[in-house]
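User: structure tokens for this one?
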Amino acid sequence: MSTITRVKVCCIASGEEARLAISFGASALGLVAAMPSGPGPIADDLIRRITASVPPPVATFLLTCETRADAIIAHHRRTLTNTLQLVDAPEEGACAAIRKSLPAIKIVQVIHVRSEQTIDEALEAVGRVDALLLDSGNPSLAIKELGGTGRVHDWRLSRRIVEQSPVPVFLAGGLNAANVREAIDHVQPFGVDLCSGVRSNGHLDPKKLEAFFNAAWK
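Assistant:
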């Protein structure tokens, strides 16, 4: 590829983990707030402290499951990240309200890739957000899966979204050092996103980080 694929390391749990991810080349960090399920949630006040320690130009993503504009805006004001990652479908008009209230903050919409219908869902969202993030959750379950599943989805669908999207697309879902190069070659995303693929016993693993970046950027 002519450009380096961006890497977003998610489920950051401390300032130390943030510094470790950045030292290997992460251009974005995911900070997971309260979720119905999945790994890595931390308290809003800790997200705010970590965010304050992250140097520019590294992006800080607040993963929020809120769907109402007022709740999303309030969540941002408790954490002060520079990016909002909406892991569930926001209510109609929410993104416009967020932009009016928080004009400097980027909005990334998560799309959970499950079927051909996902393509239409993604392309319908692109006019409202700054980027898409394709993941492998299932928001239709009684206890919603909104990310962090460690599952790979159908990259053929993701590739079709990338080809048609006018905004950058991140690829998530079960990525690790063993499959990230294939994923990048197949999908051609703007960036890749991962959590469990660089962790051991719940903690960021320097050896796994090194292996992942070497594979992603070779």
